[in-house]
Amino acid sequence: MNQLKKLAAYEVVEEKEIAELNATGCVLHHKKSGARIFIIPCDDDNKVFNIGFRTPPKDSTGVAHILEHSVLCGSDQFPVKDPFVELVKGSLNTFLNAMTYPDKTVYPVASCNEKDFHNLMNVYMDAVLHPNIYKEEKIFMQEGWHYELEDKDSDLIYNGVVYNEMKGAFSSPEEVLDRFTRKVLFPDNCYGQESGGDPSFIPDLTYEEFLNFHRKYYHPSNSYIYLYGDMDMEEKLTWLDLEYLSHYDQAEVDSRIERQKPFEHPVQEETYYSITEGESEENATYLSINTVVGTDLDPKLYVAFQILEYTLLDAPGAPLKQALIDAGIGQDILGGYDSGILQPYFTVIAKNANKEQLGEFLAVVKGTLRKLADEGINKKSLKAGMNYYEFRYREADYGSAPKGLMYGLQCMDSWLYDGDPMMHLQYQATFDYLKKVVDDGYFEQLIREYLLDNPFEAVLTVSPKKNLTAEEDRKTAGKLAEYKASLSKEEIDRLIIQTKALREYQENPSPQEDLEKIPMLAREDISRQPEEIIWDEKDVNGVKVLHHEMFSSGIGYLKVLFDTSVLPMEDLPYVGFLKSLLGYVNTENYTYGDLASEIHLNSGGVSFSVTSYPDLQNRGQFKGYFMASARVLYEKIDFGFSILNEILTRSLLDDEKRVGEVISETRSRARMKLEGACHSAAVARATSYFSSAAYFNDITGGIGYYEFLEKLDKEYPADKKTFIARFQSVVKKLFTTGNMLVSYTADKEGYALLPDAMKKLTDGLPAGDEKRYSFLYPSGNRNEGFTTASQVNYVARCGTFAGTGMEYTGALKILKVILSYDYLWINLRVKGGAYGCMSGFGRSGEGYFASYRDPNLKETNRIYEGVVEYLENFQVEDRDMTKYVIGTISDMDVPYPPSTKGNRGLSAYLSGVTREMMEKEREEVLNASQEDIKRLAPIVKAVLSTGSLCVIGNEEKIAAESSMFAETKNLFHS
Q: Between the CA atoms of 541, 542, 544 and 549, what dihedral angle is there, to the nearest 10 degrees?
């Protein structure tokens, strides 16, 4: 760090140890430009760079969001039309994206390769500071919005990537409520506006206003630059100064986040969300109460309210949630602490309630909080919440997202508001303080001060309204028709010419010399060794155990799997429900509230899931499992097994009231999951037409499972004992030692404690019998169109090449990159206006194409059918082919945390993936040529000829294209 003080261009503002990260953080100020810099040098190879800007919106035209898209559409040094896509195709990045928040826009990248990391930094710095938006208005039209008119007789429409993205974002009731909450709580500052853009206001944004937003806010004086990882910080800072920052003088940029003045009295308002004609308005209202809680610059509040969220709302049996359920207000209780903005707020939501219950809702919420404040919160639950969050902070397991990226985003929760960027990273002192005051009434006082005696409060009702989406679509169409009618012939001709000019701009590729300006690696820079698959099969007292040996920071990742083939097919949806029921009912020794506290006081959590693994040695076969998972410190492995024994063998499934509550809540959460990932649901459903594994997944966790939950919720009240007997029967058959497989990720020291600890589970389980059931599913295309109140569509086309004689090849991984970021990207996103597009092909022969927040339907399916011809005529320069190869390797070489590495080893073992298969696949990727890609055309033809189609989306669009489907129906029924 001493070397940094010698850098003349910078002033070291602060330097201090971040013991929690085993690193030292340093805050610097660039003297000439005024740029703020925060660096964390450490031994993490997964290097992270981020440049962010404070971008408070003044309206809901989505200018910040449109700009986030647009600056990545070419720059001075890299004038290609989409350098972001070129980087995805040809970089070894471990993260590459850009995100718009309510008050900031950030551009993070990450890579383990030093040369690649530098290239990413360079492209992103040039993009944000020197974008092509000033030279080409079509960028704004494509990414934001534009009028589209094919000919004089066509209807005039709006199109644009962000416009269509936000039409999708405004489709779910939870999103409507979230946006309405901020609008009401913050009427006078930026949080009351929609930074992503409200489709009603996006067309109000002019090109000049768009440019002015960049001129004002995208200046180094308004920037926040972050570097993390194992790199030469002196070299990186010197480069930033010479290449970019030194070219700017400090400027006064007024980007302050104004504080909303607290209300003198609570406010109460109502709005509406759209449902389809077939959905019921009864028990479909959202009631919410929201209170602003200080600022993000108070580190104690920042953590304390996360713990209160757990204690009051999230934990099974949480008192506020339980009081509302007991009062019959709502079928699901949501909410929590919403931070990441200057003025965070705490929310309590009753979902699927009735509007008439508002008064009772408020009385129960306030009465329960008053009782907790006066009589005290359960201290065991508070301490469990503390341990839960402290475990999560320490573990820093973010899946495939680099932990350095997450630290960089978290530091903005204070840094953006002129606070210390290390404030929330140095969390240990906060946890130590909270542990000291938990018994002194500290949390009770927080409830009094912020949730009871706080007039800065909004009471909101969001009610259903049938066909509101269709009504809004008609209003928009009428407005556009009226506008078109007001135009002269010359103005109409101009719009037609403008539409064609934009289309030509989108269709014409960037010049080769511009493409070659994007820096990239060579194939020789890439290792030919695939990631190691780690598993060692052992036998412990007759039970098969897989040990995934690796360093895991003293945390053991335990999975206990039970083969679902011991159950007949009609029981499998009940297995899907068990994953939500177990842990949420009383056991012989614990109430479900105490059970949750016991788990989180002694572990990093217990969870249950249902999953499947294709059997690659036997085509069309798969293995289905119910999986119990626990994260424990090595010395707590005995607790992990004993608590699983308590849950699996001693759960009291005959509590009729509680089981009914869990059914309603599970149905609610399953609906939210579907609404949040319609593209994945459509792919899974279409694949279930021809794949046994996909059909299993569908009935235990997909659309088929949701249909089961709707039926269960409706029929359970009249036949409780029959359903409970079914749950008990499934548990008895499923949880046996003869049906059990254990997977454990830990080092040798951690594993040594497992054999004895495992007896705490196996001694409590019966041996079971040998009976197994065949899985016979109704194969054949059902080609369904599922209608929702969404304004956009999710179009999935799936199929298989299994059984055709054609074999899986690593080149199919390259094809995913080519299609998702070339053919599909250009046709569906750039030209079609869909927010996203994707494709994929697996070892089992399954393939899919999907669109996300797509204004089109039939046109999208036509694009999918053009893939074969595209491949037959595929021509590419050697440099571009290498780019695709590198981009593919980037997807294959993600640095995962130990938990995920263990999961990958388990998956390889159960699916039959060998080291030799992975080596062969990697060689096929690294050696791939243009001809190898062209040879994939027959495989894609086989996938498409399967003819499996599923669409989730706009009711009117699906009705208009009903001939494409064997059946159209509502996705949700009440």
A: 20
Q: What is the DSSP letter of 806?
A: P
Of these residues, 143, 194, 457, 661, which one is catalytic?
A: 143
Phi then psi for residue 12, to 5 deg, are -80, 115
Asked whether the beta carbons of 113 and 521 are under 8 A apart, the reply is yes
Three-state DSSP at 426 gives: coil
Of 68, 148, 390, 784, catalytic = 68
Instruction: State how far the Cα of 830 lies from the Cα of 822, in Å rounded to an integer.
Output: 10
φ and ψ at residue 782, rounded to 5 degrees: -105, -15
160 vs 141: CA distance, rounded Å? 7
Torsion sign, CA atoms 89, 95, 99, 105: negative
Residue found under tokens 């290239």: 119
The pair of structure tokens assigned to 627 is: 């999986």
User: Which residue, among 234, 248, 222, 299, has the nearest Cα to 130 in the 3D structure?
Assistant: 248
pLDDT in the model for residue 1: 64
Gap between the terminal Cα atoms of the chain:
61
CA torsion sign, 191 to 197 to 201 to 203?
A: positive
CB 775 within 8 A of CB 696: yes
Mean pLDDT throughout 267-284? 93
pLDDT grade, residue 399 (50/70/90)? confident
Q: How far apart are CA 83 and CA 79, in angstroms?
A: 8
Q: Is the pLDDT of residue 88 over 70?
A: yes
The DSSP symbol for 651 reads B
For 533-548, write each residue's pLDDT tens digit.
Answer: 999 999 999 999 999 9
Cα–Cα distances (Å) from 220 to 11, 13, 54, 430, in that order, read 15, 17, 11, 33
735-752 pLDDT, tens digit each: 999 999 999 999 999 999
Q: For the segment 36-66, what is each residue's pLDDT rounded down to a tens digit? A: 999 999 999 999 999 999 999 999 999 999 9
Tokens read off for 918: 């992975």
Going by C-beta distance under 8 Å and a sequence separation of 6 or more, which residues neighbour residue 732? 766
Phi, psi of 163 (to 5 degrees): -55, -45
Cα angle 102, 106, 110 (rounded to 5 degrees) comes to 145
Cα 817 to Cα 72, 837, 870, distances in angstroms: 19, 11, 14
CB atoms within 10 A of CB 374: 10
Is 68 among the residues known to form the active site? yes
Mean residue pLDDT of the chain comes to 96
